[in-house]
What we know:
Layout: E1 2-13, E2 26-36, H1 39-44, H2 53-66, H3 72-86, E3 91-99, E4 107-114
Antiparallel strand pairs: 1-2, 2-3, 3-4
Helix pairs in contact: 2-3
Amino acid sequence: MDKIFIKDLEIETVIGIYEWEREVRQLISVSVEMTVDTKKAARSDKIEDSLDYKKVCKRITSLTKQSKSKLIENLAHKVAETILSEFSVSNVVVTVEKSGALRGSKSVGVVIERP
């Protein structure tokens, strides 16, 4: 199987466990790797025969902006479930990173994989 990916999609959302985090929007980064069969699209050269990653990107952005998850694990799970249920994808790996969460680190994050 082949993979289509979106890397480092930056989205502002409410996320976090502390009271102050529930009152502000924070920038997070979402990356996805989706397992798909690209043979038909490769032969036809038509977007209708492929996974439209622009639509996937818009859906992830919409979901994330509306989310009020406390944990990045919860947000990653929601993203994975949405992609698997709304697009022709057999497997998805979702990475969610939150910059500035720990002093001294560039970011913290979670990587989940769902069939």
